[in-house]
Amino acid sequence: MMEFDEVIRRVGEFGRIQLRTTIFGGLVTMTTALQMMVTVFMQQSPAHRCAIPGLANDTFEIQGAWHQYLINQTIPVDENDQYEGCLWRSGNDSGNGSVLSCNEWVYDTSVFPRTFPTEFGLLCGSSLLINMVNVVYLTGVAAGAIVGGLAADCIGRKTVAFIFCLIHGVGGVGAALSPTYGAFVAFRFFVGTCHGAANNCVLVLGMEFVSPRKRIISVCVLGISWGAGIVLATPLAYLIRDWRYLQLTVALPPFLYLGFWWIIPESPRWLLSRGRYKEAERIVRWASRVNDGKMPETGHFLNEHSLQITPTLSPLKIFKAPRLMARTAVAICGWYKHCFRSLATRN
């Protein structure tokens, strides 16, 4: 019988099987980054003003002198001599009319022909509902990180990763086709849940079948993929200006990733932890053939002693290790700073 780290060395520390798994994880991570960042462009509130009551063909662009006159009579200006975006004047006399709030607007469509706020009227007093979408999304990310980890321990890394990959695509398509604000928020919650769950699952799946000294490759690939997704959001939004088409474009790739199901294995390390030794041996032999490794094709080489079991410790033990507690505090502060800066940039 062999220890599992020795099995990995004989199979190949980072062969074709591990490369496939890492590529799958990188693609999933890049797509989750895209899904998060496209909201920066989808939720843009373009320049706007109240629609002139009774004028059916009103537009944000000035149509002529007559149109300019109606705007001047109907729309008040602010301290910067710009037309108010949320107020209109009910009287014909610019000096005596009552100033009221409006619920219909015309928009500058020169940059974005249609955005999420303009389609659902999330302007002026309703603008806070835009930020609520982001709050719900991040709540889903937190929930997914918890649920995904527990599910991966019970069901399997590969199975859970692909389930959430599928839901990620379905939720993204649903968000793109949402007829109402409530439906969009619900679908974005599911997309956020899959973001938290899928990212954690592909990270663990990629690292558990790689030798300790090669794990940095898997981690770096996922980090680079996340950055690539953030960077790609800008040119993608530049090419696709309509928010529904943009949301649909970033939602479709996960369906293509499902093809990896037949070319990457379940984590043998997880199978060993569950006592499924024959399945683990079958996967190891298959990986050895693909990687041109040196594992025997017959006999048993894995059992309950192949995997070193680390004793479980209470999280409260951290308070008895000052150095570890200090490092944890620094990491927490760093993540808070990152999240606040990211949200400030997006808003």
Summarize the entry for a quick read.
The chain has 14 helices and four strands. The protein is mostly helical and 347 residues long. The chain folds into three domains: 4-40 and 126-310, Growth Hormone, Chain: A (Up-down Bundle), CATH 1.20.1250; 48-108, no CATH class; 314-347.
Layout of helices and strands, plus pairs?
Blueprint: H1 4-11, H2 16-37, H3 39-42, E1 48-50, H4 65-74, E2 87-89, E3 99-101, E4 105-107, H5 116-120, H6 128-155, H7 157-176, H8 181-207, H9 215-239, H10 243-251, H11 253-257, H12 268-273, H13 277-291, H14 322-346
Antiparallel strand pairs: 1-4, 2-3
Helix pairs in contact: 1-13, 2-8, 2-9, 6-7, 6-8, 7-8, 7-10
Q: Percent of residues in beta strands? A: under 5%
**Count of extended strands:** 4
CATH class of the largest domain: Mainly Alpha
Distance between the termini: 57 Å
- In CATH terms, what is the architecture of the largest domain? Up-down Bundle
Average per-residue pLDDT, rounded, comes to: 86
CATH topology of the largest domain: Growth Hormone, Chain: A
- Coarse structural class: mainly alpha
Q: Strands across the major sheet, in which order?
A: 1-4
Globally, the shape reads elongated
The CATH superfamily label of the largest domain reads MFS general substrate transporter like domains
Number of domains: 3
Taking the sheet with the most strands, its summary is:
2 strands, antiparallel
Q: Please compute the radius of gyration using only Cα atoms.
A: 27 Å
The sequence of SSEs as H and E is HHHEHEEEHHHHHHHHHH
Outline the low-pLDDT stretches: none
Share in helix: 55-70%
